[in-house]
Design goal:
263 residues, alpha/beta, six-stranded mixed beta sheet, 7 helices, hydrolase activity, hydrolase
Length: 263
C-alpha cells in the first residue's frame, strides 16, 4: 500500500507582505525535524484574500513564468525535499486568477485556478475552467481551493483521486462539514489547510478560524489543528477503493440515477 506524508502549514498570513510570509514559511519548515513529501499552504498564503479594491490584489499578482514567490518556494522545496502546494495570486495575459502552484525543487510543476467564485473572487479574479490531477509518490492528487468544495459539480472531477489538497481561507467552521461530506461523496481523503489571522479593510475585518483538518474516505477525522498558527505532518495511505463504493461503478451509477430522474 502506497503512502505519502503531508505537512500542513496553518499560517498567520501577514496582510499584503509577500516577503514576510515567505520568510515565515521558511522559518516554520526549518524548525521541523522532518517535512512531509508534500507541504500544503493556505489559499493566497502570501498576500491575504480580501481587499478594498481589485487594484490592491492585482498589484500583488505574479506571472508564474517569472514569479519571485515561486522562485523562493522552489528553493524551499529543494532544501526540504518536499512538493509545495501553495495558493498564489496569478497574472496571465492581463487576466488575474486565484491560483494554486504545485512546486518541486526544479520549479513549477502544475497550477490550478479556482473555479468557484465568492463575491470577493468575482471582484478580483477571472474564473478558472479546469480541474487538476497529478501523480506523486504512487498516489493521485486533485486540487481544490476553498469555496470549490461547496460545489459537487466541481468536486465530481476528483471521483478517482486518492487525495484532494485543499488550500482555504475559511472564516467559519461550516465549510469543514462540507469537506467531510466531499470525502465521503468522492471516496477520497480531503486535506484542508486553512489560515489564521485577519484581513483588515475599510468596511470590515475578516477573521480566519484555522482548524485545518484531514478526513479519510470513510469521513473519519484524521487530524484537526487548533485556531493558532501551527504545523503538523500527517501520513496518508492509499485506499484505492473507498469502502462505501466497494463493488459499485460510481460514474455508471451516477449516469443511471440521472437517467431515471430526468425521465
Amino acid at each position: 500500500m502506497d503512502s505519502v506524508s503531508i505537512t500542513l502549514v496553518q499560517l498567520e498570513v501577514e496582510y499584503k507582505n509577500k516577503q514576510k510570509n515567505i520568510a515565515l514559511v521558511s522559518k516554520i519548515l526549518e524548525a521541523e525535524t522532518s517535512v512531509g513529501d508534500i507541504t500544503l499552504l493556505p489559499e493566497l498564503f502570501s498576500t491575504g484574500y480580501i481587499f478594498n479594491d481589485a487594484a490592491e490584489i492585482h498589484e500583488l499578482c505574479e506571472d508564474f513564468t517569472n514569479s519571485p514567490t515561486i522562485d523562493s518556494l522552489t528553493v524551499l522545496a529543494a532544501k526540504h525535499e518536499t512538493l509545495i502546494v501553495a495558493g498564489i495570486a496569478e497574472l496571465d495575459n492581463g487576466q488575474y486568477y486565484n491560483s494554486v502552484a504545485v512546486i518541486d525543487g526544479s520549479g513549477l510543476r502544475h497550477k490550478y485556478r479556482k473555479v468557484s467564485q465568492t463575491k470577493f473572487d468575482k471582484q478580483y479574479f477571472s474564473r478558472g475552467s479546469e480541474a487538476l490531477t497529478f501523480e506523486h509518490k504512487g498516489l493521485t492528487f486533485g486540487v481544490a481551493i476553498c469555496f470549490d468544495v461547496w460545489f459537487p459539480e466541481i468536486m465530481r472531477a476528483y471521483q478517482s483521486v486518492d487525495v484532494v489538497l485543499h488550500p482555504a481561507n475559511f472564516g467559519g467552521h461550516h465549510s469543514f462539514a462540507i469537506a467531510q461530506a466531499r470525502a465521503l461523496e468522492e471516496g477520497c481523503h480531503m486535506v484542508t489547510c486553512n489560515r489564521v489571522g485577519q484581513d483588515v479593510v475599510d468596511a470590515f475585518t475578516a477573521t480566519y478560524c484555522g482548524g485545518s483538518r484531514v478526513y479519510s474516505p470513510k469521513g473519519d477525522l484524521i487530524l484537526e489543528l487548533n485556531e493558532q498558527q501551527s504545523v503538523e505532518t500527517v501520513a496518508i495511505q492509499d485506499l484505492s477503493i473507498a469502502p462505501q463504493y466497494n463493488g459499485v461503478d460510481v460514474l455508471d451509477e451516477i449516469q443511471q440515477i440521472a437517467s431515471v430522474l430526468n425521465r
